[in-house]
Amino acid sequence: MENVQDARAIANQVEDFFAQVDRRVEIDSDNWVVIKRLTFGETKKSLELAMKQIPGSNELVFDQGIIQMEQMVSSIVSWEGPGFGGRPVSRENILALPSYVGDLIASEISDLNAPVSDDEKKE
Fold first, then answer.
1. What's the distance, Cα to Cα, between the start and end of the chain in Å?
2. Distance between CA atoms of residues 44 and 63, nearest Å
3. What is the pTM of this model?
4. Residue 96: phi, psi to the nearest 5?
């Protein structure tokens, strides 16, 4: 029931459900990336790719690292700055980023895709 309420709260805040929501993430003063809010399909695909069945049981587990990587690949729209060495945004280049850069971007992606807070629900 809470997920339905969260979805309704978000829906009440947007005029166009298909409008892309972008955020610029500053890596440092010279480098940044632009990320977008994940779609329903992108979110479910990252979960599907990360789902594993424990051998000999019906129990399913999710590999959080795979979820994070897949969501990062789907979220990064563009990047700018000398730190990217002129490389284009691609799956290969995203996964080759240094861990500290990836962790910063992943944190912002998580924040952008987080459920609506109680305060936002009241607005």
1. 19
2. 14
3. 0.75
4. -90, -5
The C-alpha atoms of residue 39 and residue 85 are separated, in whole angstroms, by 29
* Token pair belonging to 23: 């955020």
Are 35 and 7 in contact, with CB atoms under 8 Å apart?
no
Q: Shortest CA distance to 95 belongs to which of 70, 77, 63?
A: 70
Using CA atoms in the order 103, 107, 113, 115, what is the torsion angle rounded to 10 degrees?
A: 140
Query: Measured between alpha carbons, how far is 47 from 31 in angstroms, rounded to an integer?
Result: 30
Per-residue pLDDT of the chain (123 residues; tens, 9 = 90+): 455 555 555 555 656 778 888 999 999 999 999 999 999 999 999 988 889 888 888 888 998 999 999 999 999 999 999 999 999 999 999 999 999 999 999 999 999 988 766 665 555
Contact at 8 Å (CB) between 9 and 120?
A: yes
Element spanning 81, H or E: none
In SS3 terms, 22-68 reads as: EEEEECCCCCEEEEECCCHHHHHHHHHHHEEECCCCCCEEECHHHHH
